[in-house]
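Hi R.,

Here's the input for the flavin-adenine dinucleotide complex you asked about:
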Amino acid sequence: MRTQVGIVGAGPAGLMLSHMLHLEGIDSVIIERAGKEHVQARLRAGVLEQGTFEMMKELGLGERLAQRGLEQHALDFRFGGESHRLDFHQASGGRSAWVYPQHDVVTDLMNARTRAGGRMFFEAPVTRLEGVRDGRPVIHFEHEGKAQRLECDFIAGCDGFRGVCRDAIPADVIKVYDRVYPFGWLGMLADAPAPTSEITWGCHEDGFAMLSIRSPTVTRLYLQCEPDENPDNWSDDRIWSELHKRLDVPGMPPVNEGRITQKAVTAMRSFLAEPMQYGQLFLAGDAAHIVPPTGAKGLNSAMADVKVLGLAFVEHYKRGSGTWLARYSDTCLKRMWLVQRFSAGLCTMVHQFPGNSDFVRRLQRADLEYMTGTVPGRLQFAENFTGLPIGA
Ligand code: FAD
Ligand code: DHB
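And here is the predicted structure with flavin-adenine dinucleotide in place:
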């Protein structure tokens, strides 16, 4: 089998790249380890930056997003027993964010690829890559009990943090930056309407909490917990009592309780691999970088990489120029370090770290007050949360 761009992974990065290339008449094949239903059902991120929203609309993926996406203009930070509303729409001169869950993004992309007859292999784990350096790359994978090979001009490694593509970059070429946080998030879905139309963050001395929205009748809730916490340690009573304690403040409607339908723990890390390319191999999304979920940047960063990579492939195939491909890693890393800075900074500002001194806790409070209570603080949050410009 042969294609122009072989894509490993059918997450948001791989699917979006394949869709972009198709619109430009460039052939690609996606090889995905998991089953199609599993990929579509995975519950993950929930917030789209302005740039991701626009990218979806421009690429013909805006229909369900327009119907179901919930435009957000502000975040409500709760600390010191008060609500501190940060209007990022106003602070950024009119930019927004959209609540639109990752599984909906994946469904839209999967439908578009299926309608266009895109070649996708599910339940097809990639075992190794060959020839990424010498210009004749081959993806080796298993499918229906048989070893298969896909020859391509380029390989896009969109196979997430635990994929195989990153390992194809030799150890003396790749440099990895990694920070693991001493806490995780217990994430829940509840059949309960959000008390207000805005995402609410509880920055409490007993730990962080967040109330986000999935639909008019479903809330997404997060509680800071131990990184290796067993979700079964959290009874519904304990969950609601912690959510009320960390999120409710006088004068604002309290968290609405309802049936909890999902409960899972996510560990947190900041991770980045440099460079994001080697020979004919290009890494995109979680394969190259992980951020703590505090800034809602994981999915959006994957989309930003893919935009740069897609345009670089178009430059190569349509205009015969390899300049953008050669610059791919530098272009993405420049933006990604700023995203890492924002995500790690927010994560450190709003969570309780074991053993934090009173002094550090007061500094965290001062950071929150500066961010929500000053013009430059609000501007900095607003331009990062709604999405930094994507270079190409
Ligand atoms: P993925 O979505 O990880 O896709 C990679 C794909 O590659 C997967 O389908 C995988 O099965 C496939 N794959 C892996 N290895 C192979 C192989 N050997 N062969 C073939 N296929 C392979 N971000 C936020 O912004 N907010 C959140 O609240 C949030 N919550 C999250 C919760 C969890 C549990 C996780 C894991 C992530 C969360 N993220 C969140 C991050 C966000 O979901 C990711 O940044 C996003 O999915 C990245 O997309 P991707 O396409 O790069 O990678
Ligand atoms: C979600 C919302 C956020 O504002 C955030 O920072 C992380 C995740 C969510 O809706 O899942």
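One thing worth noting: Residues 8-14, 31-34, 39, 44-46, 102, 125-126, 158-160, 163-164, 266, 285-286, 293, 296-299, 302 surround flavin-adenine dinucleotide (ligand 1) (CB under 6 Å).

Cheers,
M.
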